[in-house]
Amino acid sequence: MTFTQFPMQREIVLTAGNTKIGVMPEISLVSHFQVGDWPVLYRASETGNVKRWGMPLMIPNFSRLKQGIFQEKGTSLPAHGFGRNLPWTVTQQDASSITIQLISNEQTRSQYPYEFVFTAHIVAGEGTLTYTLTMENRSDETMPIAPGFHPYFTVAQQDKAQIGVEGLPEVDPPTIQWATQPPNDPYPFPHKVTLTIPKGGILTIAEEPVNGNYALATMQVWSEPSTAPDHDFVCFEPVVTSEDGLNRPADRLNIPPHSSQQLILQLTARPA
């Protein structure tokens, strides 16, 4: 479909050597990551549903909260948070990097009553995409948060059983019924997982430590059955914690008043 061809009009393109990254700041979406001829991230060409492509940032919460309620404050938050529904502002941009920002406002306070600045810094390197997320709490109270990334990796349905997985021993693609019962399961994320993607190459999903600390403890593995439109992807999602995690103080991040926390995700792709 031509209407989803890269780059679209609203995509900002970052380049480094043979690497191209697309970013749509208005929905904080990394919309494209390509190394050589390999489109690592999927684009929903059948439906054009932009919620189903690239690598969205899910903030302040990954997945659903029980009854949609953020218990601490008795407010409602949508599945995967509001970050992908609100416009972010570009604060810096050059040929290979971009910085976008979301600042708390009337709309966010009704769902998540904290004063914050979320900053995403996305950099194209030779075969790499580096994403640094800074979460600044400007409130006088601790700010709970449980963000995550939701990358859609391009894999044809018939090739999913041939994916090679290193670092998630419980995930065995040949034994999964991808066409009829695809996975939707959380696993411990050892901060580095390497996938061998058929007809693609070697893909490494890694969290870089910040001051010796890691934040992304869980990896959610998910895909769609062959009956769903736009199903030629597999998601390996590095997240702070699994579903309803914002309501679990021990599992989420708790950022002290007037301080910030950072996490760094890096994707490295080597085409076959």
Automatic annotation (TrEMBL):
This is Aldose 1-epimerase. InterPro entries: Aldose_1/G6P_1-epimerase (IPR008183), Gal_mutarotase_sf_dom (IPR011013), GH-type_carb-bd (IPR014718). One of its GO terms (molecular function) is isomerase activity. It holds the Pfam family Aldose_epim. It comes from the Bacteria. One of its GO terms (biological process) is carbohydrate metabolic process. PANTHER family: APOSPORY-ASSOCIATED PROTEIN C-RELATED (PTHR11122), GLUCOSE-6-PHOSPHATE 1-EPIMERASE (PTHR11122:SF13).
